[in-house]
Known about the structure:
Layout: E1 3-7, H1 11-22, E2 26-30, H2 34-43, E3 46-49, H3 53-61, H4 64-67, E4 71-74, E5 79-81, E6 87-90, H5 97-104, E7 109-112, H6 119-122, E8 134-138, H7 141-153, E9 161-165, H8 170-175, H9 180-187
Parallel strand pairs: 1-2, 1-3, 3-4, 4-7, 8-9
Antiparallel strand pairs: 5-6, 7-8
Helix pairs in contact: 3-5
Amino acid sequence: MTMIAVLGNGRVGGSLALAFARAGHDVTVADRSPGSAADAVRAAQIVVNATPGAGSLERLVALREELRGKILVDVSNATVDGPDGLPVGLLYPRSSLAEQLQEALPGTHVVKTLNTMLYTVMTAPAALSQTPTAFLSGTDPDAKQVVRGLLADLGWQQEWVTDLGGIVTARAAEAAILFVPHVIRADGFAPFAVSITR
Length: 198
């Protein structure tokens, strides 16, 4: 059993928290108040960032000391949104949210994953008609191995997980968000994921 703090209690955070709890982990979901987040992070071994990406950097930098030495699983996308609320651009076009977090939190092991799919697929990958892919980006191999284990707890088979390499590769995974508004306009909010087939 691992102690996991999920930051963000929306659809993404709520779904992940429930799935991790069902897998036997000790899960705390922090609300938006700074005190709640700090207490949750301090007690956790692994922290999941499911907060809206545009404000994630500021929120997490405020928790620098609490995050020191911990694994931070970043599933958010930092976007510039259009009038309909769907992304029209990237907040960090020459970088990525994950890179910004790793630079600002050098004592934390940031791992990017699960941001290239509709949130329902994160916890039910086998529900799709074709095999989805979950990508991993991060500097620390041991941290990525731990996150692989968490993905397995969510139903991800190991052959569905692709390690892209260092944290700089997160900018490629985060750029996939630009597909989302077009996919949704074409097909609605049906579950989907980026998939690498060979």
